[in-house]
């Protein structure tokens, strides 16, 4: 695993346990716990004025971090009390942290939570394995301002799912790397501001955890830059199947492909060619039969689905797959395969929204990452599930979470632009998962820069700058390692 990709990893709680186990053999957990608790105290001190703090401590190492935070806050002369749900296991690092805290202890009750100005929740973290009892939730729900140690004690660190109904937090302080549950909704909202503290975890321990979920950032992948010797075929040809009834979607995808740097974009429009020829002058419109177009080996990458009826998909997609082309299937192609995902076997990338995903594979449930990963394995293709946080899985199990996005992208045609961008990156020669990840990021970046209430056509004007920025950021990431 390359060092710079470790920078973007999001270890799951199970992987954190492996990491902690490896660390216990090198530095010992006590030193890490001390830095973790110190980081919590520092994050609190730098955001809040001194006030009455109650630290809720659970029986494990999350509770251990809580005792350390309490000790450092008290040392800074903050009025601090600790309420323990249960005493830590004797002989462990949390028991030692509890022993070193010599301040006030109070009962673990809703009344005590209500009396505090600020409640630090160190009940459960990575070890959360079931819904907390009412005894715990009743105390958390009474708190005014809440700060989580690692995670809110009812949020699953792997999935972001809330295992009980609970309040939103002002701040969460996590360690080493954010967890998937900090990025995926609803945990993403519940956790409030996120601080990730460096506690000196040796990188080889993180490596030993073998993380396989990543935050989608330039550097996780790199997008080809312009080269002096470039010509349109080296930049790549994107071919799209164009339908008769809904040419808009195909044209939006074609525009997205051109704006993100394709060398040449062609629409195979058959008998609808005349209508497409009235569109953008930089597009090439073909009316020859698909079989004839496929004789051109330079036309490696095809986008099939936007603007197509099921009959039009039926007439094109199997032909493209049989010809061994790299096929990105979206929109109409996903509807065509609903209930029979095997029809998509042989395509390289699919980009469903949640409804299309459910039609193909069933509802994803609480663990979206696992559902998308399973779908990618099942179909042996990259699956990109669109959403406020987009999940992109490769058949080999790698998953990226893209939160580089804005609700401004939630406008009709936005998905067509995205599939056009991904097609361009595939045509530029990027590996399939990396192209899908990079496409999601470029699309998000364009949306973030497209001003207030943009319409879909507005994104195109920002895709070139987005690609340049991705190239620069990936180069920075490579230099930093
Ligand atoms: N990953 C890291 O780098 C570090 C992690 N540390 C802390 O260690 C934490 C993980 O500690 P642990 O593995 O001890 O686990 P936790 O402290 O999260 O949980 C402790 C135990 O509580 C029990 N439990 C879980 N859910 C429960 C529920 N709903 N009701 C009742 N009991 C429940 C389980 O048996 C679990 O083992 C992290 O969240 C973090 O705060 C730090 O101390 C230092 C370094
Ligand atoms: K917690």
Enumerate how many helices there are, as a single number.
Answer: 21
Strand content: 5-15%
Largest sheet: 10 strands, mixed
Query: Runs with pLDDT <50, length 5+?
Result: none
Rg from alpha-carbon coordinates: 26 Å
Mean pLDDT: 97
Going by helix content, strand content and strand pairing, the class is alpha/beta
Number of DSSP E strands: 17
Cα(first) to Cα(last) distance is 13 Å
Q: Overall 3D geometry?
A: elongated
Strand line-up across the major sheet: 8-17-16-15-14-13-12-9-10-11
- The helical percent reads 40-55%
Which cofactors or ions or other ligands sit in this model?
A: ligand NAX, potassium ion
Q: How does this model look, in words?
A:
The structure is a single chain. By secondary structure, the chain is an alpha/beta fold. It has 21 helices and 17 strands. The protein has helices at 3-6, 13-24, 29-45, 61-75, 93-100, 110-115, 134-142, 180-183, 187-190, 203-208, 232-235, 247-259, 273-277, 290-293, 310-322, 332-336, 354-361, 368-379, 414-427, 432-448, 456-480, and strands at residues 53-57, 80-84, 104-106, 118-122, 145-149, 171-175, 193-197, 213-215, 237-241, 264-268, 284-286, 301-304, 326-329, 349-350, 382-385, 390-393, 399-402. It has a ten-stranded mixed β-sheet, with helices on both faces. The chain has a seven-stranded parallel β-sheet with strand order 3-2-1-4-5-6-7, covered by helices on one side. The longest helix has 25 residues, at 456-480. The chain starts with a helix and ends with a helix. The relative contact order is 0.11. The chain binds ligand NAX and potassium ion.
């Amino acid at each position: 695993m390359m060092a710079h990709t470790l920078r973007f990893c999001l270890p799951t709680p199970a992987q954190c346990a492996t990491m902690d186990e490896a660390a216990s053999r090198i530095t010992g957990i006590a030193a890490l716990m001390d830095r973790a608790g110190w980081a919590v105290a520092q994050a609190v001190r730098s955001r809040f004025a001194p006030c009455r703090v109650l630290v809720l401590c659970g029986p494990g190492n999350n509770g251990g971090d809580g005792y350390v935070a309490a000790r450092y806050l008290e040392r800074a002369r903050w009025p601090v009390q600790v309420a323990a749900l249960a005493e830590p296991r004797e002989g462990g690092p949390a028991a030692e942290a509890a022993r070193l805290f010599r301040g006030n202890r109070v009962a673990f009750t809703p009344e005590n939570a209500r009396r505090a100005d600020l409640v630090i929740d160190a009940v459960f973290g990575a070890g959360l394995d079931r819904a907390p009892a009412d005894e715990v939730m009743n105390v958390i729900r009474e708190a005014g301002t809440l700060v989580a140690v690692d995670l809110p004690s009812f949020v699953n660190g792997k999935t972001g799912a809330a295992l009980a109904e609970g309040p939103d937090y002002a701040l969460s302080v996590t360690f080493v790397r954010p967890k998937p549950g900090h990025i995926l909704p609803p945990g993403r909202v519940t956790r409030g501001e996120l601080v990730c503290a460096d506690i000196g975890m040796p990188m080889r321990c993180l490596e030993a955890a073998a993380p396989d979920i990543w935050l989608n950032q330039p550097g996780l992948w790199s997008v080809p830059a312009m080269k002096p010797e470039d010509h349109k075929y080296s930049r790549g040809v994107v071919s799209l199947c164009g339908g008769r009834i809904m040419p808009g979607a195909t044209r939006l995808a074609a525009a997205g492909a051109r704006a993100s740097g394709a060398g040449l974009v062609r629409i195979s429009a058959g008998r609808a060619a005349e209508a497409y020829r009235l569109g953008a002058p930089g597009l090439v419109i073909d009316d020859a039969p698909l079989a004839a177009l496929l004789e051109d080996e330079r036309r490696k990458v095809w986008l099939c689905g936007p603007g197509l009826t099921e009959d039009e998909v039926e007439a094109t997609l199997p032909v493209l797959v049989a010809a061994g082309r790299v096929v990105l299937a979206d929109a109409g192609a996903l509807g065509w395969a609903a209930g029979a995902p095997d029809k998509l076997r042989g395509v390289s990338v699919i980009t469903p929204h949640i409804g299309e995903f459910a039609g193909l594979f069933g509802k994803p449930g609480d663990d979206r990452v696992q559902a998308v990963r399973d779908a990618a394995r099942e179909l042996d293709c990259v699956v990109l599930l669109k959403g406020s946080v987009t999940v992109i899985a490769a058949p080999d199990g790698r998953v990226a979470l893209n939160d580089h996005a804005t609700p401004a992208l939630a406008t009709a045609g936005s998905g067509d632009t995205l599939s056009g961008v991904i097609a361009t990156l595939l045509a530029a020669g990027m590996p399939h998962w990396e192209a899908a990840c990079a496409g999601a990021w470029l699309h998000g970046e364009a949306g973030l820069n497209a001003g207030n209430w943009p319409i879909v056509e507005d994104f195109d004007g920002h895709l070139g700058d987005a690609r340049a920025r991705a190239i620069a950021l990936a180069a920075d990431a490579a230099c930093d390692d």
